Protein 1
Amino acid sequence: MTGERTAGQGRRDLAVLGRRGIEVRQAVVDAIDPETRRVALADGETIAADAIVVALGAELAPERVPGLERTGGLFYYTLSGAERLRDQPAVVGRGRVAVVVADVPFKCPAAPYEAAMPIDHALRRRRVRDRVDVAVYAAEPGPMGVAGPEVSRGVVALLDPRGIDYHPGVKLAAVGDSGHEIRFAGGAKAHCDVLAVVAPTPGAAGGA
Ligand SMILES: Cc1cc2nc3c(=O)[nH]c(=O)nc-3n(C[C@H](O)[C@H](O)[C@H](O)COP(=O)(O)OP(=O)(O)OC[C@H]3O[C@@H](n4cnc5c(N)ncnc54)[C@H](O)[C@@H]3O)c2cc1C
């Protein structure tokens, strides 16, 4: 996201699991029958098991916020979104970066704050931080609520000395046509030059 590491440096080979005696099979699952504990694959094969653990993920749904997809919000929860965000703060040089959690629940409660702080760090390293504002707008009432109030206060205490504005309890309602105006439920608005968004995630369970 800030260019300090490449995508390749974050990848791991699934063959590692094979060496531990775990068989890895990549295929599309068409159906799961919990009664017979059978999994039907799209290639026609059926897998039987004594226990089935299902982890099909939670998809981002940016289309739920009017203007978000069209106006170029950067969905840094995806690899392509993180790579697009990578060069943005430098491009801004002067302006405002908004890290926005559009709605709750969302995947990984730490990730918005883990985005804002490296962005702050990258801007300082490039010696442009005094010309770029960084703000977090989050639909949740406070950071990392699943970890309890002490951790939540601790995260806020990390943002403050870095000059990162924090606006909790605001749900993203729309992005204006220019892509620079973010609108929240209840009528509040904010300006941004770079919009880094955790898009609505309807299937998320609320924790990591
Ligand atoms: C930026 C970010 C940072 C995070 N950091 C942390 C962290 O530090 N610690 C932590 O614990 N968690 C973290 N998380 C959360 C963690 O990544 C997710 O909770 C975890 O990946 C969810 O695993 P999953 O297998 O349920 O879903 P996914 O990782 O989304 O994987 C689901 C897979 O199922 C596949 N699939 C879907 N439908 C089918 C089908 N019909 N047939 C076959 N395959 C299918 C999908 O293609 C996908 O590959 C982070 C998440 C993000 C986005």
Note: The longest helix spans residues 111-125.
Protein 2
Amino acid sequence: MTSVREADLTDFPFILPLSRDSFSPYGHYDLSIARWFLTPGTYTFVCEKEANGKVCCGFIMFALMRDEQDGETVLEIMAIAVSKEYRRQGIGSELIKFVKQFNEDSPAGGKPMKIRLSVAETNQVGRSFFEKCGFRVVAEAPWLYPAGQKALRMEF
Ligand SMILES: CC(C)(COP(=O)(O)OP(=O)(O)OC[C@H]1O[C@@H](n2cnc3c(N)ncnc32)[C@H](O)[C@@H]1OP(=O)(O)O)[C@@H](O)C(=O)NCCC(=O)NCCS
């Protein structure tokens, strides 16, 4: 059985090494993850699995921000990762489902927000995963990941 709860500082020893392990092909994200975690308006949730007590197996971080183009409030997923030993068991999908529900429950201006994210062009697993979750590539982002990969913008 799995459940999702809001993360707190005691989850750092889980979130930081998982981020390092998951995002190192794209750059050094430790400081960014820590800074985003502490930024008001950014939300971090962890997924726990019941296995002789609760074990953290994944996290998602997102923020509500203003779209540069049309000024509307959008929900931006900044990071999602699942521990290697728990991948391909539906944990990532559960975290995305949670965010979609959060969006339904916290509408900006009375309607759910656009949900968007960036994924490295080379991250085939991430792209397949987000596509399976209903996201579509809408553009190439006008920036590169620190390690040089192109970034694709995806929206739901
Ligand atoms: C991307 C990630 C979060 C997916 O988490 P997960 O818990 O393994 O995903 P799920 O089990 O919910 O998978 C849902 C669907 O995504 C697709 N998918 C997931 N992993 C895949 C893989 N390795 N290869 C191909 N498709 C994959 C499949 O369609 C899968 O459905 P299926 O298992 O019924 O075929 C996980 O692989 C991860 O942490 N990757 C490293 C971090 C990362 O790249 N994050 C995204 C950029 S921020």
Note: The chain has a mean pLDDT of 95.
